[in-house]
Amino acid sequence: MDVQVEDRPTCQLVQPSGQLDMETAPRLQAALEGLIGAGRTRIVVDLGRLTFCDSIGLSTLVVASRSCEAAGGFLRLARPNAFLLNLLTVVGVRDAVHTYESVEAACR
């Protein structure tokens, strides 16, 4: 999995691509923790390039979301596919993270 971070005027855009699972989640976690540690707590994660996400990957996103909120910011998910939306619902965290159909909407 590759993780790209883009500094936007209203948020930090994080773009993971490929599979987000037990093996690759630490890469995303490191990127998110780096941003949060630097005080950049308005984060949008663009999920449009993910091909797979397991419960470990999902947990990484939820934990980072809570850290952002505790610091007065947010972590929003942009472009989740139907599988990810269902996974969020099944594991009971659909209300814990906000999802948006586009990166632009999430960055507002």
TrEMBL record:
Residues 1-108 form the STAS domain. Transmembrane segments: none annotated. SUPFAM superfamilies: SpoIIaa-like. InterPro entries: Anti-sigma_ant (IPR003658), STAS_dom (IPR002645), STAS_dom_sf (IPR036513). It comes from the Bacteria. It holds the Pfam family STAS. GO terms for molecular function: anti-sigma factor antagonist activity. Belongs to the anti-sigma-factor antagonist family. This is Anti-sigma factor antagonist. It comes from Virgisporangium ochraceum. The gene is rsbV_2.
